[in-house]
Amino acid sequence: MDTSIHPKRTILIVDDHPITVDSYQSLLATIESNKQANYLVAFTCEQAYNTINSNHLENQPIHYAFIDISLPAYKEKNIYSGIDIALHVQKLFPQCKIVIITMYKEPLWVNQIFKGLNPEGFIAKSDINFKSFPEIFQSIEKNEVYISQSIKWAQKILIQNNINWDD
Hints:
By secondary structure, the chain is α/β, with parallel strands linked by helices. It has six helices and six strands, in the order βαβαβαβαβαβα. The longest helix is centred in the first third of the chain and has 13 residues, at 45-57.
């Protein structure tokens, strides 16, 4: 394969459910531009933190990161959720495209994540399926920001109620 057309990329997937990680990886691998991708997986905040740091120390970029919010914490490093992991990725790999995939759709959670992260993708797990997941990735790959319907709804609720919560 001509790598000038599809350079090798690294994709980080962080979720505490191995079946979910396997599904994301399988779906991403069906996309032509990901055929030669290097996949990094983690199931806890500690594993994710160590994987991110290892790549950074080896000067190996992470191009895309798919991160769930609800993860087992890494208390020794004050990392309590996928939000903290995503912030760590952004700090070490500012060019990395962050995609948050979560069960949380409550307006206050959504607002906190947008204010803190401003991810390239923000998806409620209930809004994706095997057909839509690759399409979502391809839109993010084209530098489009993807926000799923439930997340848009949560933003709309905040705006309608004119809620402006501080941290």
